[in-house]
Sequence to fold (213 residues):
Amino acid sequence: PHLPWLEIPLLPDFNNNGHLIEGPRPQREDIVIFRYPKNHKIHYVKRCVAVGGDELLYADKKLLIHFHEGEEYIKANYPADKIVSLRDKLWVENPYMDKYPGIQYAPEGPNIFEVLLRYYEYNKEIDMMPVNVDGLDAPTYDIAGKGVNALYTKVENDHFYMMGDNRDNSNDSRFWGSVPYSLIVGKPWLIYMSLEHRSYDNVMNGDEYGSGK
Fold:
């Protein structure tokens, strides 16, 4: 617990995990409030897309996940048209989009996949590693003389990979990594303030940047 607004801890971290009482961990698909790993005074709200042991491939307009439970779990829980075989493993392509219509790829600026590649090429400050995946239907880019069509990462134990539903306009785990349990705050209850640079009509009815879903 922290003193609201001032963000001053009220008690020592007795369990050395940011929590006085052990609680349930975030599950895939949950919307989660957590402390921004680069500044613990800032709270972020994102969707948990993967948990410890899961592997992710992110390509332009595609998120593919190999769930750590294995191939039988994947076959039993996801339709065949969402499952692809890559790198001798089964992956689920955009596993949550059909269930949650708010998940979308609607760019409002530069292509975020290209932005991530530039970050890696010049600063080495993103969480994901550029790779070239045979058989992946995605554009190929040249990075230091090598073809790259995806970014790869594996989630650490007791960590949670957080992504915004507005995938093309989100500062999330793709840039700064998965979130440890120690920084998890909880689930949101309601929206009390939402700021948007577009007009109400454009947000609700759509414009050249997409809808406000």
